[in-house]
Amino acid sequence: MATPHNSAEKGEIAKTVLMPGDPLRAKFIAENFLTDIKCFNEVRGMLGFTGKYQGKEVSVMGHGMGIPSIGIYTYELFNFYDVDNIIRVGSAGGLKEDVNVMDIVFAMGAHTDSNYGFQFGLPGTFCPTASYDLLEKAVNIAREKNVKFHVGNVLSSDAFYKKCNESELYKNMGALAVEMETVALYMNAAEAKKNALTILTISDHLFKAGELSAKERETGFTDMMEIALKTAIQL
Hints:
GO terms for molecular function: purine-nucleoside phosphorylase activity; uridine phosphorylase activity. This protein has 235 residues and is α/β, with parallel strands linked by helices. The chain has helices at residues 23-33, 67-80, 132-145, 167-172, 182-192, 214-219, 222-232; strands at 16-19, 35-41, 48-53, 56-61, 85-94, 104-112, 149-156, 177-179, 195-205. The model has no long low-confidence stretch (mean pLDDT 96).
């Protein structure tokens, strides 16, 4: 059943979906890691593909930039397409001093300055977290690959260009990196009783030099992609 944002029909999307923000990164993953690929969505340029990785069906689809965008796409995947697991494979800005460009960050939980969670009508402050099963599998794979990684909380911000920047405050409270989507993914997964994990590659750092180009962000995160795919086929 198609939606205003996704032309796929039931059965065209796998139970596990990798989601980069950039649809061209989705295309890169499909063309370089999957076999027997089929494009299931081109609506609004948000490319989606289903194929096989080491014999198991996996989908990959862009989610766009920001909490509202990923909120729409993941809600539809969880609730309309019977997707059970979503692994975000994105970029982030480093906050802590020991986090460097090209390091991998597993987002255990997500702080936010967004109002996205207000819709759920919860008293107090809801703390969205990753699904432990996905997190444990992915961390073990990263250890086997011998890549540098960090596990901890990230800041999901509503704004890229900020007039009042709270990043240093969150850094002092232990946040590893800042990005723009994880909190919506984790909240949608919690409400739908599904599984979610964000894996990030550090593309720049807010407090020291170093920054990747747009092309490097599109095609250069192969360690993260392989970790996500190897996690996917264990589910």
